[in-house]
Amino acid sequence: MDAFYASVEQRDDPALRGRPVAVGGIQRGVVAAASYEARRFGVRSAMPSMRAMRLCPDLIFVKPRFDVYRAVSQQIREIFADYTPLIEPLSLDEAYLDLTDHLEGRTATRIAQEIRARIREVTGLTASAGVSYNKFLAKLASDQRKPDGLFVIPPEAGAEFVQSLPIGRFHGVGPATAARMQAHGIETGADLLRQSLEFLTARFGKSGQFYWNIARGIDHREVRPDRIRKSIGAENTYFEDLRRIEDAEAALAPLAEKVWRHADKAGRQGRTVTLKVKYGDFRQITRARSLAQPLRDQAAILAIACELLAPVFADPHGVRLLGITLSGLELRGQGEPPPQQLGLFDQA
Predict the structure, then answer these.
(1) 208: which residues sit within 8 A by CB, 6+ positions away?
(2) Who contacts 17 (Cβ-Cβ below 8 Å, separation ≥6)?
(3) Which of 77, 168, 57 is nearest to 122 (CA)?
(4) Using a CB cutoff of 8 Å and minimum separation of 24, what contacts does 154-162 make?
(5) What is the DSSP letter of 134?
(6) What's the pLDDT score for residue 267?
(7) Res 348: pLDDT
(8) What domains can you pick out in the chain, each with its CATH number?
(9) 344-347 sheet: strands from edge to edge
């Protein structure tokens, strides 16, 4: 979907159409989504709201309405389901579809055109689509002609297309990895193609095989409609920096409750709690603790989060953001242990 949250807000409020819009909090929050009018000024998602305001003084902030976004996302998923059962959602506004055995005499490009037209008819919103023979290239293609675009990378053009792109455009290569690659002279897909598998695995570990493959337009990952969620998290940015540990511990309580509520609803339990702390000067750290057995309730999550917070809280800049993530997820009831004292170990 194109600028999904912001586009929903512009759809529902005609006064916002054609104007720079950011979904998020104006005072101490971050931009959750920016309209294309705002993006022209450099406003991007995950950007601190105050910086966004400096870039675009006329920026209009709108509070997020996640219940509405989820409802629209469900409408879109129902459209997808008319074409294939092999749907792998990545978020509320993005998904992979495998049409290999569901073409019924049509091309994948034709089906992508139909889906985009139906999304516009049903939701009043625009979507962009990428069509190719694997997930990596389909993702690259979907960004090629945004907004409201369609781009196709046929099999004979895949490797050549990859070679023409800067490494920062590659899905699966984040900013930190891109910087490491650039330090080795890898600026483009063509540069990546020239590296041996031994070179890449020596410097990037098990990801080296993936990078070697994508430089050649190869991606064997299947579309997985049953993709298992790896973590459940919640975080909050505060209007004023937290400077007393009692206030920070109190602020962790609703985060622990939210994480547990989502885990409970999904029938999941986890073994690892990760605490995220962002200080007033925007430095960010994480601390994690893993248990031998799954946590049983939100009180256990909160207790570990508070223990992780204590040694890292004191900072002259105060704390502007806190987050809790539960990972090491499994179905509730799997591997029920006998009663015992749980052993703890830290993960830096």
Answers:
(1) 197, 199, 200, 201, 202
(2) 10
(3) 77
(4) 158/132, 158/133, 158/134, 158/217, 159/193, 159/215, 159/216, 159/217, 161/137, 161/217, 162/137, 162/189, 162/193, 162/214, 162/215, 162/216, 162/217
(5) S
(6) 85
(7) 38
(8) 4-64 (3.40.1170.60), 80-156 (3.30.70.270), 162-214 (1.10.150.20), 231-347 (3.30.1490.100)
(9) 231-242, 319-327, 272-279, 284-291, 344-347
Largest alpha-carbon pair distance within the chain?
66
Active-site residue (options: 88, 94, 235, 257)? 94
Sheet holding 21-24, edge to edge: 31-34, 21-24, 60-62
DSSP string, 33-60: EE-HHHHTTT--TT-BHHHHHHH-TT-E
Q: Residue 337 carries which side chain, given as an amino acid letter?
A: P
Q: What's the average pLDDT block by block, 10 residues per block, for the chain (348 residues)? A: 97 97 81 95 90 95 92 95 93 94 94 97 97 96 95 95 93 88 96 96 94 95 82 88 93 94 87 94 92 91 96 92 93 55 41
Determine if residue 281 is labeled as part of a ligand binding site: no
pTM: 0.73
Check: CB of residue 16 under 8 Å from CB of residue 60.
Answer: yes
pLDDT of residue 334: 60
CA 153 to chain centre: 24
**Residue 346 neighbours by CB under 8 Å, 6+ apart:** 287, 288, 289
- Listed in sequence order, the DSSP H helices in 187-335 are 189-193, 197-204, 207-214, 245-265, 298-309
Tokens of 287: 């601390």
94 catalytic residue (yes or no): yes
